[in-house]
Amino acid sequence: MGARIAGASRMVNAIPAVCAAPPGLLSAQDLPLITGTGLVRPVTGPPPDSRRVWT
To answer: What number of other Cβ atoms are within 10 A of residue 9's Cβ?
Structure first.
């Protein structure tokens, strides 16, 4: 199910770029890099230390 959601989200996020593109046949290489904006919140506080081992 996760792959389906990931594939669908890429297509949904591409809608503004497709609508703004000139008419005609286009490939994915003709469009800008499609990224989901606003999906990840910044984490406040100190960064986690990956060297620390929790027991």
So the answer is: 13
